[in-house]
Amino acid sequence: MTSPSTTAAPADPSTPTTPSSPTVLARTLRAEWQRLWTVRTTWLFAAAALLGTTAMALLAGHDARGVGQTRPGETVWEGAQIMALLGLFVLLATAAVSTTADHATGGIVPTLQWTPRRAVLLTARTGVVAVTTTVLGVALALLAGVVLHAMAGQLALSVDEGTDTLLAVAYVDASGALLAIGLGLLLRSTAGAVVAALALMLVLPLLLGNFPFAWAQQVADVLPGTSAIQLVVGEGPAGHSTADARMILAGWALAALALGWARLLRSDADR
């Protein structure tokens, strides 16, 4: 009597295989990158930021060329810091719109059908949008510095100060993008996310900071916009160190992101 063969049967080629998580993540990252740059608004915001930064740098550089318009030792990075903060608001809008675009059109439903692993989708979308807006913000700050130096040669192009400025801009832009992404996922409204992000980063710090009440100033001191200004420009509330500003900004960004992720993971995406 012959013993039965112990050789495993060949796999049925028609049997579907489940791709690994890294493979799914790579595909989703590629899809999110393509989605980001196929939205017309992304190009419009990028063009507006580029043209606005260049125009402001040209005007500031032209004014700085006059006699007595600059002080000894002044560098191009002081002007670039202001332009980076102004450009931040365009980047916040870009991140919010990029996050909420398919919620507004209903495209989130087929998106989740294509990528049912919501954690993978959230990771890919957050990474692509945050990295893109951060790189764009740093590039704009660097462009502002170069244009200012070209227009006003007496403004020094300090490498050390430039490195510190660009690192601060990168941190602020990344944190701001995560804040806008979290608000977009939480509110699922383009207008709501943009308004909320701009209010936290611009309107409320300025408004409350000018109220003649101690409580209003205390609230303004812990808002993310106040910390963003301190990190980029170096002017912040008394008693707040750079480390405090980083922690406050990161806390707001991570809290908004956690709330946004929780809503998409636990509730229907089209509601």
Automatic annotation (TrEMBL):
Keyword terms: Membrane, Transmembrane, Transmembrane helix
Protein name according to UniProt: ABC transporter permease
Transmembrane segments: 43-62, 82-101, 122-148, 168-187, 194-215, 247-265
Superkingdom in the source lineage: Bacteria
Key word Aminoacyl-tRNA synthetase present: no
Region (Disordered): 1-23
